[in-house]
């Protein structure tokens, strides 16, 4: 059998977890670490109109008890939430709460953040039968395994068969296949 005669099989990429996939006690170590740069910190600070110079003025940061500029807290929080999306809220349609947020250690430009989440609770939605409600606790560690952030988050997430969970990937007029690849290479 030649390569052209082989059957093409579409292998779907990771589409995230649905309500049925969450089990209390499951821990997800989110796969992507993120190193924060000074540019990230300055842009995020100014974008969010935070006027505390400890985040964007090296002289003020050096004079602080930390001896250097701090990464603005909402950036740390945003990165942690973003890191968790692939494993927790890829199929969510609403965040319902962010609770017990604690910034447990300072974060500096150059730190690499890693996050992990544990499922605390799941329940079916009484008002939306195509969804469920999940509560997780996420913690974020720096490159030295020091916890810098922890919070609980509750969200609505689609069930696997929900209309909102269907794929939106467009269907090309010509499928991607070995046969079409071979035809293209002949021309």
UniProtKB/TrEMBL annotation:
| Pfam families, alphabetized | MC_hydratase
Q: Superkingdom, according to UniProt? A: Bacteria
For region Disordered, the annotated ranges are: 168-187
* InterPro entries, per database record: HotDog_dom_sf (IPR029069), MC_hydratase (IPR048274), MCH/BMMD (IPR052342)
The identity of this protein, by name, is MaoC family dehydratase
- Which species is listed as the source? Actinomycetospora aeridis
Lineage from the top down? Bacteria, Bacillati, Actinomycetota, Actinomycetes, Pseudonocardiales
